Amino acid sequence: MTSAAAEAPACTSDEMMTVTASRALRDGSACFVGIGLPSTAANLARRTHAPGLWMIYESGTLGATPSVLPLSIGDGELAETADTVVSVPEVFNYWLQPGRIDTGFLGAAQIDRYGNINTTVIGDYGAPKVRLPGAGGAPEIAANCREVVVIVRQSRRAFVESVDFTTSVGHGSGPGDRERLGLRGAGPTRVITDLGVLEPDPRTRELTLTSVHPGTTVQQVREATGWDLAVSADLRTTPAPDPHELAVLRSLTGRTPPTHDGRQGTR
Amino acid sequence: MTSAAAEAPACTSDEMMTVTASRALRDGSACFVGIGLPSTAANLARRTHAPGLWMIYESGTLGATPSVLPLSIGDGELAETADTVVSVPEVFNYWLQPGRIDTGFLGAAQIDRYGNINTTVIGDYGAPKVRLPGAGGAPEIAANCREVVVIVRQSRRAFVESVDFTTSVGHGSGPGDRERLGLRGAGPTRVITDLGVLEPDPRTRELTLTSVHPGTTVQQVREATGWDLAVSADLRTTPAPDPHELAVLRSLTGRTPPTHDGRQGTR
Amino acid sequence: MLVPLDEGVRELVRDGDTVALEGFTHLIPVEAGHEIIRQGIRDLTLVRMTPDVVYDRMIGAGCARKLVFSWGGNPGVGSLHRFRDAVAGGWPAPLEIEEHSHAGMANRYVAGASGLPFAVLRGYTGTDLVGRTPNVKAISCPFTGEELTAVPALNPDVAIVHAQRADRAGNVQMWGITGVQKEAVLASSRALVTVEEVVDELEPVPGQVLLPSRVVTAVSVVPGGARPSYTHGYYVRDNDAYQAWDAISRDRERFAEWLRTEIHGLPPAREGSAAKESA
Amino acid sequence: MLVPLDEGVRELVRDGDTVALEGFTHLIPVEAGHEIIRQGIRDLTLVRMTPDVVYDRMIGAGCARKLVFSWGGNPGVGSLHRFRDAVAGGWPAPLEIEEHSHAGMANRYVAGASGLPFAVLRGYTGTDLVGRTPNVKAISCPFTGEELTAVPALNPDVAIVHAQRADRAGNVQMWGITGVQKEAVLASSRALVTVEEVVDELEPVPGQVLLPSRVVTAVSVVPGGARPSYTHGYYVRDNDAYQAWDAISRDRERFAEWLRTEIHGLPPAREGSAAKESA
Lengths: 267, 267, 279, 279
Fold this sequence. Notes:
Largest sheet of chain A: 10 strands, mixed
Oligomer: heterotetramer
Strand content of chain C: 15-25%
Number of domains of chain C: 2
Largest interface: A-D, 58 and 59 residues
Helix content of chain A: 25-40%
């Protein structure tokens, strides 16, 4: 058993990222799930260590237990397998806003050193280089979930010194900002990438590399980051996926039709 | 046919009041119905001249078509026969508040010359002579229905110079008051009693006797009123119930168990 | 999660709590109210849109310090005599009251369920309700300048509701007229639900409201727990009992006797011949 | 009440209107959107939480002057290319945008449905959305002083939604994921509903939302009217069509050809050999 990591089957960096994200979800907790990597990670968690994970999709399906990965936040199977389906205003007002959701999963087109997220626009708002889908549920997920986990592939394009547009507030410009803004959740507690895991420094709130995935070097992570990335004194190596996790993940993604490409962030 | 009134069967003053109230409801209109006389009048209307009357009870039953008079605003038959049952917040917020209801029916323990209504307390609020049930849905029915019809037995005890407590605003203290208060409905357009019909004077908003029931004198109505009651120059005699109306009313009340005594105002 | 009623009340309801036993004619948690009387819980702030016979009993038994409500009556019958006696006569204890309109109370629960400190509505304006509580204030629309009314959120310590059934995980299902119960449960710190029965699987029903187990603290199986009100699909309203309450509750002594025999299961105090028929 | 789709659109939707074709992945009124394109209606302010391919088509066809939204994408696929081209390239016409969060848009509809000028929520704070529209403002709780966010009501001229079925009186029934459609209909001055079928009696269904006929202006029977989205209980989502839209919409000419053949039923313009296969 001590050599489990060494024996772990080879996996892709996306698989590494998804399995790591799934492990961030506690059994019995409530999770606000977006389509794409968050949904894959949540469904993996529910089929491995967290069978009691309670998944909410913003379409109003509370406690959905889909047998395949949904292609959209409004797939029919989510409604069919949910404990109940409520209206969209109810999801946001009665479930998300009062802080009933433990974990919110978010994607990002850009993220800065304080975990602030852009999913709106690259470049100037009035004359955009790339117009992105926009906010969706993200601003209030980031504000009101007890904690937020961000899943995003790491690159200098995505990990920027300063986001072009703050769609969702992470830790603002540092300590005390969330409190000043009246945001009641803890904000991003983990950013899980294909290279490693970043967590806000408890003192400075700056995202700090706390774990690198097996086979990845700190230098590689720093090179994929658009700011001078801090590294934890207590840097760990992310435990590799175990064979069961990988088998379940591959079975899940294998059952998913090809139109689902897993790159849609919060939906 | 011209002698229909003369041939009308003898009826009680309560029957006269209920039939007159039922005639105030237009076919196809939406009516916010309270238990007691309003419910009796609305159900009578639906079985006579207004088969398309759409009845809302504040319990959330929209479009109920009960076969007997309900004993409470939350009877099971209301739910079973309704087009749909919605939550209580939805009744008030989505249906009453935006002005979707044509007619609100209200009862009163006291009513003053401007149609302001008390259903809260007789005497001093802190040391009441009679503690009444309170507001219920009445303040917002009075504010937000397109018009309000009040049904109340006429007496000096009920028709007072000034109400001990304004539970629901009628025409305030006269012309322009509803507009100043931001109340969007027209307020009480008719007060139907066991003696006659009072309507607000178009200029002064003061309740004015516009119709007396057959066999009732103006003097009788004035004696049952706690202020110097104005009488319309165009005073009419209320058309008596026709035999069909009376037969339907008696069949309705005959099917209603004796626990229903019809004196409960807005519920 | 599944506990006997006495245990559920003992664990969830404490002296001094703000408690909402909600129900809109249908599904009124009457038995839970009786258990609160039985346990002698005191100084409660009772909250409910439509306090009826169960609150009349709790007030008469001395459980309440304050009542927050919008319409207090015996539906289809008339007045609540114990409530009147407490307000006007201070018996068995003075009862503070805070009253609202239905629209106001409903929106106060909605704000509470939504994690907001207040709600906005078109209501109260021009009425004497405004001057009788600090909990109604004017608010201006920041876009149009129009003046509206604000009421603060209601967030009871405990909500108590009755429902048709629950599953073993504690998910609760109710249907028919469901009133403001969902909002009351979501607005409260704790929730006790009495149900007619527990089933393996909650077959969906048209018009159902489902309360996920994570917002329910305890479920107690209490068949008939809403009597004399009704449970849609299980039993009908006992209209005679509401009528009978009028006579029982008019008189302090007759009410005390009712409490003694019907709630506490003691032998009648006044009639020697009836003393053998203990409950 | 029951009218053909072309007549319903002609009577309810006018140049310059604010129109909300709502649907949350499920029950998207795609055919009604196509009919708007076909009738050449212009200068619309399009409102929707989740503009997807049908709005991409309407924008590309030049129907829209402005878009009010919270998430614009091709669900499960990626970007909306016609939307992007209108925003970044001004083609075929400049598109003004006003963007919100989902929570903000949902509450704007709720306020609109409730006859209130604004809604209050915990949202937007600290984001750059705030500076980009005058329609997000701070508001203080009059009881606690806490600062929250206000958004103005949305009250479109016309709401257009798709539902499973209606009865002959025009009562509409939908179930499955029902999103924000009830609020959109109640918030709007007029409402057009396309349905899969008309039935004599609307048998109640668990989870249903019923829109009483008095809030529905017109019903049109349009079987398959939500394709390529889905209608719960009738047909499933055509995921390939969403995928295919990505390629069609990337290119202005290919999109124009698609409009010509698929919406206007004209023969292909570019391929001589295909000209005989007119739609």
